[in-house]
Amino acid sequence: EPPADFICPITTELMSDPVMAADGHSYERSAIERWLATKSTSPMTGEALVQSFLAPNHTLRRQIREWEEANAC
């Protein structure tokens, strides 16, 4: 079972391309892009997002890859 931080709150699946949104939460890039195409709120809090910029979460991506390798996923 992967750590909860590795799971996208939108897809509930292990992330492969995690990005951080303005709300400070990480999401799978494709899932949050679909979300932001029709909404301007945080999927986690429901609060308005001040911007739609998505920053790659390289640290989380590395941690997920290391976990996958260690668990032979």
Compact overview of the structure:
This protein has 73 residues and is an alpha+beta fold. Helices cover 32% and strands 11% of the residues. Strands 2-1-3 form a three-stranded antiparallel beta sheet.
Describe the structure in your own words.
- This protein has a single domain (4-64), classed as Herpes Virus-1 (2-Layer Sandwich).
- The protein is 32% helix and 11% strand.
- The protein contains 2 helices and 3 strands.
- Strands 2-1-3 form a 3-stranded antiparallel β-sheet.
- The protein starts with 17 loop residues before the first strand and ends with a helix.
- The model has no long low-confidence stretch (mean pLDDT 96).
- This is U-box domain-containing protein.
